Amino acid sequence: MIVPPGSHTAFIGKPSKPDEWLAYLYGKLPGPSSKLYAQYYEGEQQKFAFSQARYKSAFRGVFESWRDNFSGMIVDATNERLYVDSFRIPDTDGKGSTDKDAREFWQRSSMDAYSNAVHLEALISGCSYVVVWADKAGEPTITPVSGDRMAVCYKAGSLWELEAAARFEMDAWGRQQVTLWTEEYVYEVAYGTVEWDQGVLSPNPLKIVPVVPFENRVRLVGDPTSDLANCIPIQDAINKTVMDALTASEFAAFPQRYVTGLEIQEDAQGNPIEPFNVGQDKLLQAEDPNAKFGSFEAADLKNYVALVDMLVQHLASVSRVPSHYFLVNSSNTPSGEAIISAEAGLVAKVREKMLHFGEAWERVIRLCFAVKRDKRKDAFEMETRWRDPEYRTEAQHIDALLKLKQLNVPEEILWAEAGFSAAQIDSFREMRKADAKAAAEIQKLMPQPEPQNPAVKPPQGNSGNANRKINEAK
């Protein structure tokens, strides 16, 4: 964990020096409680909510590795549908096209894989970040940063313009490295430098803070929140109920036996001696004719199952994840239409994430163009193309696209809706050009029609005279 230098003194008012900005932004980093959501996502929270302390001491070792965690599935159900396909920038003639330079920025920074991690971190902790900067060759690089390693400060009255941002990192040897960005300068405290006032100051060539926040569940007031914020209490209730069921299965699920009329034997200290070693493979017998054996009815654990099902349904409602993801009421497999209807809430939730995350990715690409000093750094009409978040059968999907074709929707739009990537669509264009060229070459090899002499007029037809004669004959 990076800690501020001990020699730093407090200041009052707005930060004016780099070390003051670092101290202020360090105070905005999320505390240890921010790791709570990550623990629930990974299933590491493991709360042993036993009804009595003696049960905890008796069964803690038995259930040490037990997991019944839905939090990871709730987040993954959303994140698996968030896939950035390409970026569209309208041409000068108003026709939109996929920008090849934007795709090159994207591929060079391996964002096909790491964009998923950016979304995942934002869904879990509430916020993640992306830094855009130039490498040694002057090419833009996109670097994802976890929310617990970076803090930002917005300009007064703005919801998206940043005044400053700081990144706090630590290497494998415990050395800290800190970077501060403002519109005027970049301030770096190198690895191994302890005091924050011993950094290196250099001008910011972009004249903009090159950091883009990815905020989950954005509001006009308040901080972004995790998708698990409202799910954790219900998850804890499920863990408590299942733990009670497991404890009951140890104590009451096995039928308890009893015996009456049997003389109780005592040891030397006067303590009663258990007459039988009861077990499923044991047969009880007594020589006393007055002894009578019996058994209590085993506990019915169905009540626990019904309660867990109810809590899971509440969890599905709060998270807007369909019940069939939780395997609730799974005796009958839902039909395709039923699944599409059940996933309407989840799809709407994912589209809302696309709205905000897509705007953030567009800012990232504009920063990449700013690094290249390209005029497209001001391409505010840019659009993020997402893969369709709705799962449908292939037959339903293609049938819908064919109906759109009847409405004269351009083929490239239909290809994109069919799920083909921007690279595949580009290859389709080249393939069609090659097919057209090959067809023209083949046509040249076919027999050609005889050319006609324009000086010789074709004979005039006399069909009108023939028709008149036929009518006269009648």
Overall description:
The chain has 474 residues and is of the alpha+beta class. Helices cover 39% and strands 15% of the residues. It contains 14 helices and 13 strands. It has helices at residues 18-26, 35-42, 53-59, 71-79, 100-108, 111-125, 232-251, 302-319, 336-342, 344-371, 394-406, 411-417, 422-445, 463-473, and strands spanning 84-90, 96-98, 127-134, 140-145, 150-154, 162-170, 176-182, 185-189, 200-203, 211-215, 257-260, 292-295, 383-386. The strands form 4 sheets. The protein has a 5-stranded antiparallel β-sheet, covered by helices on one side. It has a 3-stranded antiparallel β-sheet with strand order 2-1-13. A 3-stranded antiparallel β-sheet has the order 4-3-10. Helix 7 runs antiparallel to helix 8 (302-319). The model has no long low-confidence stretch (mean pLDDT 81).
